Amino acid sequence: MAQYSLVSGSVGLITLKNPPVNALGAVVRHGIVDSVEKALSDPKVKSVVICGQNGMFCGGADIKEFGTDMKGPPLIPMFHSLEAANKPVVAAIEGGAFGGGLELALGCHYRIAHSKAKVGLPEVTLGLLPAAAGSQRLPRLIGVPAALNLITTGRHITAAEALQLGLVDQVADHNTVDTAVKFAQSVVGKSLDSRRISNFQCPPVPNVDVLFEEVMQKIRQTSRGAIAPIACVQAVRAAATLPYKDGLQKEKELMATLFTSGQARSLQYCFFAQRVVSRWSMPNGASWDTSKGRPIHKAAVIGLGTMGRGIAVALAQTGFSVVAVETQEKQFMDAKKAVAGMLERGAKRSGKVAAHDKIIYSQNLQAIADVDLVIEAVFEDMALKKRVFRQLSDVCKPGTFLCTNTSTLDIDQMAAETRQPELVVGMHFFAPAHVMKLLEVVYGPRSSPEAVAVAMQLGKKMGKVSVAVGNCRGFVGNRMLKPYRDQAYFLLEEGATPELIDQALEEFGFAMGAFKVYDLSGLDVGWKVRKEEGLVLPGGGSGKSARIRQGVRYSPLGDLMCEEGRFGQKTGRGWYQYDKPGSRDAKPDPWVHRFLEDYRARHGLVARRISNQEVLERCLYAMINEGFRILEDGIAAGPEDIDIIYVFGYGWPRHRGGPMFYANMVGLPIVLERLEHFAQANPDVPTLQPCNLLRKLVASGSPPISKWREAMKNVHSQL
Ligand SMILES: CCCCCCCC(=O)CC(=O)SCCNC(=O)CCNC(=O)[C@H](O)C(C)(C)COP(=O)(O)OP(=O)(O)OC[C@H]1O[C@@H](n2cnc3c(N)ncnc32)[C@H](O)[C@@H]1OP(=O)(O)O
Ligand SMILES: NC(=O)C1=CN([C@@H]2O[C@H](COP(=O)(O)OP(=O)(O)OC[C@H]3O[C@@H](n4cnc5c(N)ncnc54)[C@H](O)[C@@H]3O)[C@@H](O)[C@H]2O)C=CC1
Q1: pTM exceeds 0.90
Q2: CA distance 527 to 522
Q3: How many Å lie between the centroid of ligand 2 and the Cα of residue 309?
Q4: What is the model's pLDDT at position 69?
Q5: Are residues 507 and 470 in the same domain?
Q6: Annotated catalytic sites, by residue?
Q7: Tell me, what's the pLDDT at 719?
Q8: Is 233 in the pocket of ligand 1 (CB under 6 A)?
Q9: How many domains does the structure of the chain reveal?
């Protein structure tokens, strides 16, 4: 609702009330219309102030209303009547004004923001554009380049930046509403013509075509396949080149296409999924609302290689005291230098002081005796990790949480080496750990809810999107990656090239195809693991065993590449060729094509034409099938957990919602039918056999994704 009152004898105060963010649901919209009418028709009222309750102006349209019949007054006429009012209207922005909330403020004649408030037009992140005239008013107010930046990125800006851009008129340090009321009284009688933004001419831009072309090109590169950023540019272009009324019409047309698009549905799903996963639960019933964490002041990182360095930086930048331990002399020296550089660069970007003094370096484990939490990041070697956990348990004070950054190994085996196994959890960061947003928090069978709560809260403090998952090989992300990568290799055997597969995946929206990722992370990493697992045979093996391991189909192609010394970017040669070792510019390599032809000839394989569609179906459906298995096994609490892991950790295009949401969009019967088809053609690939949960969901009429948790309960109760 919107509450109306008369304050200071002459100011009509309209307070938006719709907790928690005062979203513009139908009831609020009715409330605004009624209150504005009251204020404008009351002769005692000389000016109007609009604010939100509980220190929050307005979080924009009520996203939960999208996809419903959206009854109630529309926003555009409401904002026009505010702007046309003959009494000054002032927006008092506390907390934030986002999307429709900022568009409401742009309809007002003046905007006053609290110094801690943030504003923005984040519609693009929901697959939309600011279609309550925001795309037309903002460029008129702050100019085309700044508006383009805000509208196409959706970023939230501080009150200080908003003031600098001319988006707000004043910043208040204390009671914003009181300041706005006084301000509203002070401007009574002043002409309002110059305050009505829709009357403004857009400030002229030299080389307007060049500017729009540059922005468009950048967007095509960074938001591969996403339609909303492109529509945002087109809408701002309309503001820059057309009269307001025509620009508004263009905005409306563009929004009509976006509003019902699959991309908007996917992005809005991601918005809510991100919030769902923060309310974690464990199969034993423990959950975020029943489990308390404990404050962490001092943490340790063990092993300062690729991951440990990033984790130490992320902890220090969050304000924790960190003891960073590395045993190898050269690594120790290199790590100190590298961490210092990362802190410096981070400080430059954020404008803060580099947190060098937060980190103490040591080559001795005794230095961590008084820390509250340890994150182990030594080599991926179970024997070593077990030894380290034994030492940690001896050295650390009782009650210290012991976390491992392992990407695949059994948390419980490490916990078993300690005196308090209930304090052991996985904290699986992604490289580079100070940049990547995802954190998989892995609970073993003995992990306490308190330990999970601590890791989840720590992740949140570090600005990570944290997802709690169960303990199995590869957890959620890496477990699902395996069948996807296997399919990519099998497709090479059957006639594809690395560039054909990567192109199909990149056109789908991945930032990088499977083989570019291999080259980036190093082919030798997986080779080492496969060797330890006894999967690698010299020369790839021969005869029947060459392409079968432990009874299932296996491609030795990756092993053979490593035997040739082709480890990827680091050696300048991998699935692509590079100008020099370390270079990132991947070029197709005729050597690889010959190598694949020889391989096929040796194994009697006849190359066939492989379509983009087949690449996507084989790679993605195999991955999705594993996702259903993960749900069936209770490793992830719901499809949202899997989707958020893929969107934030594995470059899955957000506008496609994550693998499980994508399956839901494609249609579960289609996914099942294709998997059955591929499984029949590949009986030696068990990961293509459709799993029970998928079959049960289809048999029960393919419920929407929001109902899968319920369906999963039935499957679990039958087990
Ligand atoms: C042809 C049709 C024409 C239609 C025209 C429509 C044109 C438009 O007018 C378009 C729009 O406004 S689209 C909406 C734009 N606004 C946004 O994107 C802001 C979304 N919210 C946020 O960023 C953060 O919640 C925020 C920064 C605000 C607060 O962050 P916090 O971390 O403090 O809190 P959260 O945990 O994120 O949120 C608390 C609870 O509020 C729910 N929520 C937030 N924003 C909402 C919103 N706009 N609508 C509905 N629910 C919303 C959020 O889901 C969470 O709920 P629970 O998870 O249940 O607690
Ligand atoms: N590299 C990646 O992209 C990711 C790796 N991980 C996991 O993180 C862990 C570390 O991986 P990386 O950083 O890539 O390895 P790395 O090889 O770059 O670094 C490991 C470091 O640990 C040090 N170390 C070994 N034993 C030690 C001990 N007893 N005490 C102190 N330091 C010791 C080594 O000297 C080395 O500097 C592994 O478990 C890996 O699976 C997880 C996510 C991503």
Answers
A1: yes
A2: 9
A3: 9
A4: 81
A5: no
A6: 103, 123
A7: 57
A8: no
A9: 4
